[in-house]
Design goal:
By secondary structure, this protein is of the alpha/beta class. It is about 50% helix and about 15% strand. α3 (about 60-75) packs parallel to α6 and α5 runs parallel beside α6.
Length: about 180
């Protein structure tokens, strides 16, 4: 994401879109995201979880994991985007110029959640447009046990506002004084 954003910004693009390259996200839906951004949103998410959004071909377990991750992001971080793990997005240039992308610690789905959180915290306007997410027919999912642990760690890290090892060193330094 970071390399793509840097390239797009260097090219002078006003809107930068991200999407899965396995056709889980239909390129024909890109105009919906761009139009919503042009209408005033700073971040637009192609969402499975708004009226009109759908999921096709995903297992019940995968849907449960996705729904649970979004529910936890809402509960723990207060993220208002319903589909904060979705990678089908359009960012307005000023979002990517304002948020310190180099300071983002996360990757994968966690990066998406962290970006949604940082956009909201910075006061950017977010919107969601309904899309149909079609589960991949080739290749393997990126969701793994490790990815789930990373996602939960990201929620806790963002909620506490610090990396755990920094908080632990602060705690030990305070106890010594």
């Amino acid at each position: 994401y970071k390399a793509g954003f840097a390239h797009g910004l260097a090219q002078g693009f006003q809107y930068l879109c991200t999407m899965d390259a396995d056709f889980s996200h239909d390129p024909a839906s890109l105009p919906l995201l761009i139009d919503a951004t042009a209408a005033g949103a700073d971040l637009v998410v192609g969402s499975r979880y708004v009226p009109g959004g759908r999921i096709v071909g995903s297992s019940q377990l995968r849907q449960f994991i996705s729904y649970g991750a979004n529910w936890l992001a809402h509960l723990i971080l207060g993220v208002t985007i319903r589909d904060c793990t979705a990678g089908f997005r359009c960012y307005r240039r000023r979002v990517l110029e304002t948020i310190d992308l180099d300071a983002i610690f996360s990757s994968g789905y966690s990066f998406l959640t962290e970006m949604a959180y940082l956009c909201q915290r910075a006061g950017f306007r977010s919107a969601e447009v309904p899309i149909t997410f079609t589960n991949r027919t080739e290749g393997a999912s990126k969701i793994s046990r490790s990815e789930i642990y990373k996602a939960f760690y990201t929620l806790l890290r963002l909620r506490t506002g610090a990396l755990p090892w920094k908080r632990m060193s602060d705690f030990y330094n305070q106890r010594r004084t």
